[in-house]
Amino acid sequence: MHSFWNLLMTPIEKRAFSYTSTIIALFEEVMATKKNADRVIADYFRANKKHGAKDRRIIRESLFGLFRWWGWLQRLPKMANDIQPLRLQQLYITATLEQHPWQEIADAWAQLAQVATHSADIEDVVSACTWLNAQFPTLDFTLEQLVPDWLWPLLPEDFNQRQVFITALCQRPPIWARTQHTNRDAAISELRELDIDAKAGPFADSLSLGNKSINLQQVGLYRDGKLEIQDLASQVIGQICQPQPNQTWWDACCGAGGKSLQLASLMAQAGADNSTIVASDIRPAAMNELAKRAQRAGFSNISLKRWQDETLPVPAASFDGVLVDAPCSCTGTWRRNPDQRWLDNADIVHQSATLQLSILSRAAAAVKADGTLVYATCSVTDIENRQVVEQFLTAHPEFELLTLTHPFSGHQTKFLTIWPFEANSDGMFVAKMRRL
What we know:
Elements: H1 3-8, H2 11-33, H3 37-47, H4 53-68, H5 70-73, H6 83-97, H7 103-113, H8 125-135, H9 162-169, E1 176-179, H10 184-193, E2 199-200, E3 206-208, H11 220-223, E4 227-229, H12 232-241, E5 248-251, H13 258-269, E6 276-279, H14 284-297, E7 302-304, E8 319-325, H15 340-343, H16 346-363, E9 367-377, H17 386-395, E10 399-401, E11 404-405, E12 412-413, E13 416-418, H18 420-423, E14 428-435
Parallel strand pairs: 5-6, 5-8, 6-7, 8-9
Antiparallel strand pairs: 1-3, 1-4, 2-3, 9-14, 10-14, 11-12, 13-14
Helix pairs in contact: 2-3, 2-4, 2-7, 6-7, 12-13, 16-17
Family: Belongs to the class I-like SAM-binding methyltransferase superfamily. RsmB/NOP family.
Keywords: Methyltransferase, RNA-binding, S-adenosyl-L-methionine, Transferase
GO molecular function: RNA binding; rRNA (cytosine-C5-)-methyltransferase activity
């Protein structure tokens, strides 16, 4: 905006315009580089320490709001030849749809965009859609537009809950965590004293920490290794593994180690005194992070063995249990990472499925007779989940598929998907097999 017009702005308009410049620059960086928005905004705040807590919240929540509603926002007509009024209008609509508390900033965005402000009584995604259609009667906004078209054909054929799925994707999930080496009720009391909205979760060690951002380094339980952040859907995987005392387990795609730590914690709860967990990944940085977390938690029974190439990095037929939490399209995490909806396409699903089958087939060789093989992804697509398992079983008749009980609905299934709307969580898939 020309400096002449900048002189005519009110103080609140100048502040709103400053936010706009920052938020849009971050938005465009994510779209151009396809980097994870969490990483982009973390790098920005690390390099720009001038922002206070309120500024950081407005910037962060507005940025993620743009991605959350981008399926609608990208349909708004451009104003003349200037992109700036459109961006201001998109920020105003985002703040309205999400009912952000910084109303004076939202009104300033509308004023700078030269668009009228309208009161909105928005309770859910349906009322949000109704309100937006009323503002733009010549346009046609639908719920399905909030999800890329390419996803729908890739979901399981019997999936018929689009509206509740979309509703979940448009709501921020709580921060889920696990306790370890400590009593959960005592942990909840300690967290509440820190003004953290901690509540018991469905598993004996799970808890919700609410929706507010938390500086974990100021939480003693976390610093002492008694609290681990792990989404509830991810926690289901460890519960399905059901590691028993004194077993040996291999986490074949450990990443930063959330599930390795969960396995160790579950073994400790069961009274294990001679259990062993080997964790492997192809990324040294991720494994280094796991080493730090294991040390903080006091788990000395986790050892690291990196994948160097396609050769099995552990002895064949030597583990009671093998967990393959395979690299995937991460469509199950779109609720927590709304930017990923618009950065990926169907190609990543097909590419992931090919890699997943390859990893699963190789890792299965490490399972001993009568041992357990667990396959998991944070995807909700049928190609990466059921189809990978079925292809694997066709090629490996020495494994049988086991029946699982859905932890939240109680129904029996051999292909367990945790949908975001079922547990106020991410989406996750898991199948459990036994070597004959």
